[in-house]
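User: Structure tokens for this complex, please. No commentary.
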Amino acid sequence: MDLVTRSRLKSPWILHFSCGGCNGCDIEIVACLTPLYDVERFGMLNIGNPKHADVLMVTGPVNKRNYRVLRNLYEQTPAPSLVMAIGACACTGGIFRTCYNVVGGIDKIIPADVYVPGCPPRPEAIIDGVVLALNKLKEKSRTRKTG
Amino acid sequence: MSAWDIVVPVVAVLGAPFLGGFLRGLDRKITARMQGRVGPPVVQPFYDFVKLYSKERIATTRESLIWVWGYLVLTVTAFALFFAGQDLLIVVFILAFAGASLALGAFSVKSPYAHFGAHREILQMFSYEPILILAAVAIFLKSGSFLVRDVVAMSQQPLLPDLPLVFLALLIALGIKLRKSPFDIAASEHAHQEIVRGVYTEYSGPFLALVELTHWYELVLVLGFVALFWAKPLWLGVVIALAVYFLELLIDNITARVRWSWMVTISWALGAGFVLLNILLLEFAGNTVRL
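Assistant:
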């Protein structure tokens, strides 16, 4: 493994965006940063800026007001970047799926790399999801994203 | 001018990124331990740097790139001049230009977050510059020269026992310069979020990596400035500098951020006040070098 790939795997900076969920998944994501799980061990940082982020963690079912924000954030993350759908809502729309204002899942708007199901998923599952995403990152080329 | 005058700054400029990155790694490890976490490996800053450098190049405006390079080049210039034993005042002024480059880079984009950060960066410079300049004056009064080379050569007894208040004031300036709590107003050195990311908001990928690299140089430079207070024997100065760094980490973890008006009040009233008091005491004691 060359130095660049190794560095990418060792330093995934995370941008967390809630697309209108119930806040359950968001609390579980934040729980990953606490001393109990401490994802900074793996070089993960919760960064508040899409321009610095490598992994976009999205929760919530996406509605017709905020899908533009989601697309905007995705376009602002420099390549190579990854998108994770955290929780049942972000994966499929969850229980809000049939609401009139809900788009239903983030992959209707941006291409998702990893789906972490659960309502909400446990922090362990989220960390597992990041590991899975990083395996995908190994295969991603350096080229600009097209999606 | 001997060969050492060339060799020392060249070695320092080449070696500083490794030392600075390592110290930043220690910072993150110690900070994590203080918060009851395990923390990232010590080499984490280097992983971050390589990753950032290999990311996609996105520039918001062309001017911001000029300013970020200016920030790096000016800081490295100040760094090289310091380790070449040149004028302390010139070092302080070039550092001020470097800080201004960072602020102007943030002003050259349209993001309101970057503009807020730039305003705060300028307030920070406004706070610590008087302390640095007055500290240089105090060192001059004691050693009779602004040249780092002469200060090191002429200090038969160390500066610290005669300039304890200057040293205290310098701790305040270092806290601001190293972007540590309670003075992490423009942007924290850690990945805290303050109005997105303050001055760094619009820098991404390789350009953010340049900013990181500059921070490593800054860190080694300010620790070198601290070590100047006990230049003979130098190892004791290095120990003092590392102790000061640890103290800054401790203060960073036990204090909350203050308002900018508090920062200006503390640094001007306490910081500049301490230095002036120290200069006055030196004069009354007749302890200065007569010119």
